[in-house]
Amino acid sequence: MERRSFLTRSAAVTGAALVAGPFQGLVAHADSGGARRGPGFGALRPVPDGTDGVVRLQLPKGFTYRSFGVAGETMSDGVPTPGRHDGMAAFPGRHGGTVLVRNHEVPGISPAFGNTADAYDASCGGGTTTLTLDRRGRLVDHRVSLNGTVMNCSGGPMPWGAWVTCEESVDGPEVVSPFPGQDNTKLTRKHGYLFEVPLDRKAKREPIRNAGRFQHEAAAFDPVSGAVFLTEDNFVAPCGFYRYLPPVHPMKAGRLLDGGKLQMLAVRGKPNAALQLGHERGTTYDVDWVDIPNPDPSFAPGTSWFVASAAVSSQGLAAGAAMFSRLEGATYCNGTVYFCSTQGGATAPGDELPPVPYPRFGEGRGQVWAYDVRRKRLRLVYESPHSQVLDLPDNIACSPSGTLILCEDGDGDNYLRGVTTSGALYDLAKLVVGAGDDDAEFAGATFSADGETMFVNMQALVGRTFAIRGPWDRC
C-alpha cells in the first residue's frame, strides 16, 4: 500500500510560521493573498526536458534540465531499470564525471530485480542502482548494485566512497503485515536494516544489524566522531532520532562495521519531550543520548507489524528519549545534521488531517530540525504554518553554499523549496505530472562535486532522474 493511502490530507490556508536556528531572520508567513516568500531565483515557468522536449518541470529563468535512468529502460547489465526512484547521492567520478547511487523504494513481496541468486532476499524488489555519467553529464553505465531489499527509502553518502541505503521496513517472515494481500511468510530474511553500497562494486548484502531494525529513512555521517545519525519514519507511533557509534571509526576502517552501539536522542531534563508538537521561535534544547539495549529484535511468529515497528523506539522511550513525528530526510553540513519531521508541528485551523482507521502520531505540515554535533544542541530551524507554504518536507539536501533544499511529499502540487542563509523560503522547482500520476513527488536531491548540477529523482508511475543545471552558486 502506498504511503499516501495512509496520509490523505486537506489543504486550507491559515497560520503563522515558527522559525529559528541557523537561518536568523527567516519570516515565511501567509495572509489572505497566500504565502509571501523571498525572491529566490524568480517566478517558475514551464521548461521542456532536454532529452525529449516534454515539459516535466517548472523552473526559474536560467535553469535547464534533462532526464535519464527511466524506469523500465534496459540498463547496461541487461536488467530493466526498477521503479520508485527515491534517495540518492552524487560522488566524483573519473575524468570529471559523476557517479550516482540511487534507491528504489519498492515495497511488499515481489521478485528481486537483477540476478536473484545474488539477492539478499529473492522475494523483495527494492535495492539500489549505480549510474556513471561522463563529464558532459551523459549516462555511460547503469547497473544493479544491491538487490533483494525492501522499501529502500533514503540513506546517506559516506566520504570513503560508499552509499548507505536504508530499509523503511520491519518486514520479516515472523511479522504479520497490515497491508492487504502481503504474505510475509514468503520472505526468507529479516528486514529493517542499513546496507553499505560501495561505488566500485556490488554491495556485499550484509546488513549493519547493530544500527537497528526499524523503519529506517536516512543516514548522515559525522566525519569527526565517526557517528552515523539516523532517522525513523513510523507513521503510527513516536519516532526517534538515533546515532550509531561503530566499533571502529569508519574513516579508519574504510567501511561501516557492525557491532557498534545504537543510541536515541533525549532532551536534557525533559523525559519523553514531545517535539512533534508546535514550538516557539528560537526553540533550543540541550540533549543527551540513551542506549538501545536490543537494536536488532526478533519476534515470535505472528507478531503484529504495529508491535514490531515500535520495538526499537519503545526501548529509547522507556529511557526518556524524545518523540518526533515521521523523521525522514537528513543531511550533514559543517558540523550540523539537518533533518525533517514530515508531520511535525502545530496544526493550523482548517488544515487538519482527516480521520484515518489507525493510530497517527503527528498532525502538522512539517518541521526542519538542526542538531549541532559538537555542542550537543538541538534547534528548530523551520516549522510549516500550513500546507500552502510547505507541505510535508521529505528528503533534504545542502547546496554548495549551505542553503537547504527540501523535497515535498504532499498530495497537491509538489515543489523543491529552498531556505536561504539570509532567511527566505522560496520555490525552486515544481513537478509537472500527467493525468493519473497524482502521487508523483521529488526525491533524492543531491549536488555534483563541482556544484554546477543538482540531480533529483521523480518518484512516479514512470520514475526518472533529472540533472538540473543553473546558477547554483547563487543558491
UniProtKB/TrEMBL annotation:
Query: Which organism is this entry from?
Result: Yinghuangia soli
InterPro entries linked: PhoX (IPR008557), TAT_signal (IPR006311), TAT_signal_bac_arc (IPR019546)
The positions making up the signal sequence are none
Q: What is this protein called?
A: PhoX family protein
Pfam family of this protein, just one? PhoX
Source taxon at top rank? Bacteria
Sorted alphabetically, which SUPFAM superfamilies does this protein's record hold? Calcium-dependent phosphotriesterase
